[in-house]
Design brief:
The protein has about 230 residues and is α+β, with helices and mostly antiparallel strands. It has 3 helices and 7 strands; from the N terminus they run αββαββββαβ. A hairpin with an 8-residue loop joins strand 5 and strand 6.
């Protein structure tokens, strides 16, 4: 006798599963990686250019003479007064090359030199100033009584005696008293424009020039430098 088949039980229906959307995450990550790589390349190029510029700048530097300490006008330069410095090559600057240091020693400064400044040819006088057989006299020169800004150590000048206050003007053709001298140094002008000029003169002229200078009766005339 056959056993009757069990009735079929319907399979329960569960809730529908939501569909999972396909995202584009992998392409976004790949794009970010390319951006980072490109940035690194740019930074590397910039660093290389900077290094190249630094090397070129270093190769353009030149050794020149600079002032190691303050030097008053008229003093002969010594080895202690100078130091070698490296500066960038610039056509606007004309400092004296370090290789010429030996030829500069012994020359007199035409102006006051300040520590740290570059040494220029125009700052050096053409003469040696005071000789072994000469006397030195300091003369206070007021504004307008000497060529403005043109006197330099080594210049030949004539110290002219000016009329005293109340004296009549010299007649035409009258030659004023003069003393031949050589400029040793020139100070910086004060607030009134007055400068002190140290002059080297013959021994016989020293006392005469000093007495006239004490009365403020001296004017300076610079001789032509070609003489």
């Amino acid at each position: 006798m056959e056993t009757p088949a069990a009735p079929t039980v319907p399979r329960p229906q569960g809730p529908a599963r939501p569909e999972i959307a396909i995202t584009t995450t992998p392409p976004v990550k790949r794009q970010r990686r390319w951006s980072v790589a490109a940035l690194c390349i740019v930074l590397a190029v910039v660093a290389a250019l900077g290094a190249a510029a630094a090397v070129n700048s270093a190769s353009d530097r030149t050794r020149v003479l600079a002032v190691a300490r303050d030097v008053p006008a008229g003093r002969a330069l010594t080895d202690s007064d100078l130091v070698v410095a490296e500066v960038s090559a610039d056509s606007a600057l004309t400092p004296i090359p370090a290789s010429q240091k030996t030829s500069v020693l012994g020359k007199r400064s035409a102006v006051d030199l300040r520590k740290g400044g570059l040494l220029l040819t125009s700052q050096l006088g053409t003469g040696t100033g005071l000789g072994d057989n000469q006397e030195q006299v300091g003369v206070q020169i007021k504004r307008g009584m000497a060529p403005a800004g043109t006197l330099a150590p080594g210049d030949k000048v004539r110290a002219v005696t000016t009329p005293a206050q109340g004296d009549e003007p010299a007649k035409k053709g009258t030659v004023p008293e003069t003393v031949d001298a050589t400029v040793v140094s020139v100070s910086r002008p004060d607030a009134t424009g007055t400068v002190v000029v140290n002059l080297a003169v013959a021994p016989d002229d020293g006392p005469v020039l000093a007495s006239r200078a004490a009365l403020g009766r001296i004017a300076l005339v610079r001789e032509p430098r070609s003489n």
